[in-house]
């Protein structure tokens, strides 16, 4: 079975600080895609960042970056210079089924940015 | 509109009633997915369409759940004889074909009394 584990149910950090959300996954596939999605109270799931497993270089998107450790099956998200608008649930997800890219999600981390 | 549109945003039904949830994907998106998100949990896959073809329905929890996308655009998720355990947020997502990012709608919150 393919699983995603997010071991931090809740986190909080002061505005402008850096925070890292952890994610581990389990799959026997060698090629797959990993994602971090953000879900604010409005409920719409928004893509934060994407990583292709065959790429060694860690993905970055402005203040968001990942630390992808393929051998350890670890995919953490780092948010730099955190802002109040970053307050949301964050879900780690991956897909291995090319031709059917259904996502497997973790249980999420509730992140609160404190002013 | 520019994004995935889902309706209704909220639905309250009595146990035993049938409900229908609508998803209008982004124009041109071939792939369409339905997910169920229980309170405090991550979304779980229900079913997948490529154009009008339902290629995977392995996540549908029972034969009371039925989904269709007859013209390869709008999709409807129908739940017959609703039960309390069906209460959840139902998310729809669409994407271009291939391992492309999925774009999600705002979801429908279904409450079964």
Indicate the radius of gyration of chain A in whole angstroms. 14 Å
Largest interface: A-B, 25 and 29 residues
Q: Indicate the overall shape of chain B.
A: globular
- SSE sequence of chain B, one letter per element: EEEEEEEEEEE
Intertermini distance of chain A:
41 Å
Strand-residue proportion of chain B: over 45%
Description:
The complex is a heterodimer of chains A (115) and B (113). Helices cover 0% and strands 50% of the residues of chain A. Chain A has strands spanning 3-5, 10-14, 19-21, 24-26, 33-39, 46-52, 60-61, 64-69, 74-79, 88-95, 104-105, 109-114. The radius of gyration of chain A is 14 Å and the shape is globular. The mean pLDDT of chain A is 93. Chain A has no helices and twelve strands. With 115 residues, chain A is mostly beta strands. In chain A, strands 2, 5, 6, 10, 11 and 12 form a six-stranded mixed sheet that branches. Chain B has 113 residues and is an all-beta fold. Chain B is 0% helix and 49% strand. Chain B is built from no helices and eleven strands. In chain B, the strands form two sheets. In chain B, strands 2, 4, 5, 6, 9, 10 and 11 form a seven-stranded mixed sheet that branches. Chain B is globular, with a radius of gyration of 13 Å. The N and C termini of chain B lie far apart (33 Å). Classes of the chains: A mainly beta (115), B mainly beta (113). At the A-B interface, strand 5, strand 6, strand 10 and strand 11 of A face strand 4, strand 5, strand 9 and strand 10 of B.
């Amino acid at each position: 079975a393919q699983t995603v584990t997010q071991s931090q149910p809740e986190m909080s950090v002061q505005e402008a600080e850096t925070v890292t959300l952890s994610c581990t996954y389990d799959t026997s596939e060698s090629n797959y895609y990993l994602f971090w999605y953000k879900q604010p109270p409005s409920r719409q799931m928004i893509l934060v960042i994407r990583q292709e497993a065959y790429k060694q270089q860690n993905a970055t998107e402005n203040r968001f970056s990942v630390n992808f450790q393929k051998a350890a099956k670890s995919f953490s998200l780092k948010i730099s210079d955190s802002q109040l608008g970053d307050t949301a649930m964050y879900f780690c997800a991956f897909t291995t089924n090319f031709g059917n890219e259904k996502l497997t999600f973790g249980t999420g981390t509730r992140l609160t940015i404190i002013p | 509109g520019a994004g995935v549109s889902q309706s209704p945003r909220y639905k309250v039904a009595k146990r035993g009633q049938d409900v229908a949830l609508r998803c209008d994907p982004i124009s041109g998106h071939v792939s369409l997915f339905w997910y169920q998100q229980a309170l405090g949990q991550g979304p779980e896959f229900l079913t997948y369409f490529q154009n009008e073809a339902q290629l995977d329905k392995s996540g549908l929890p029972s034969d009371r759940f039925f989904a269709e996308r007859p013209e390869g655009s709008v999709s409807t998720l129908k739940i017959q004889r609703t039960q309390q355990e069906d209460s959840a947020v139902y998310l729809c997502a669409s994407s271009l074909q291939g391992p492309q990012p999925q774009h999600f709608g705002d979801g429908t919150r279904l409450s079964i009394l």
